[in-house]
Amino acid sequence: MSAHLSAIDLLKLGDEDRTKPFLNQIWPYVIGVPFGIGSGIMMNFGTRRPIFSGIQKHILGVAGWCALLNYVQNKRNEYFAEKDAVYRHYVELHPEDFPIPERKKLADVFEPWVPIR
Questions:
Q1: Domain around 75
Q2: CA-CA distance, 13 to 16, in Å (whole number)?
Q3: Which distant-in-sequence residues (6+ apart) come within 8 Å of 68 by Cβ?
Q4: Into how many domains does the chain fold?
Q5: Domain for residue 6, yes or no?
């Protein structure tokens, strides 16, 4: 994205065929599988049974955790979409508060380094 675009132009860009990072797509499953298996192991440990007895507990734990984390991810996406819509609406109503930034060279931004003597 270019620095010479106004705030409203940046907000109107949208996704532009961008995809979510790979880890963002699979994190509910990456976390849900160990948590589900761990839940089954902890239930068996608490009832003094062999670790992997009643494998259906582990399967249900994995399914439950993955479903819960997917739900949380979807709610998080909805929250951020609503937040972005509020920002976009505010910027559309008050464009004078968001001027187009002037272009600067990097040499103008940083002060020259002078060693302390």
A1: 27-96
A2: 7
A3: 32
A4: 1
A5: no
